[in-house]
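TL;DR need structure tokens for one chain.
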Amino acid sequence: MPCPLCSTDGGFVVARTPQFRVVRVTDGDEARRFPAFYRLIWNAHVAEFSDLSVTDRHACMDAVTEIERTLRSLLAPTKVNIASLGNVVPHLHWHVIARFQNDSHFPAPIWAPAQRETAPSLARPLEAVDAAIAQALSG
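>> reply
TL;DR here they are.
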């Protein structure tokens, strides 16, 4: 079975480097319930974080940190969730998700049953968040 993260971008591309790309999830229920849901996807097909060289591990986590900082700065979420599961798609990627006290699942993980039927309103348009993430990763 072909890897969906090797054959597609995996979402709306916000930033692209030689090592990874950052996408915003734009499809399905996840995008509606968690509008500030980003993924850092490693370009090379590797399954585990420990498959990366030391330099690449640092670059990866520095980028995840910049995405988190940007979300915190622009959206003031209650919490930012960071996860790397890869059980369904064994291609290295990190989920970076701004969470809000009034989102449909808070305080449970986004993969748990919904606790209410709400979607958060954001302090900034997603296009501004996308641009800020791209800017943070370009320098």
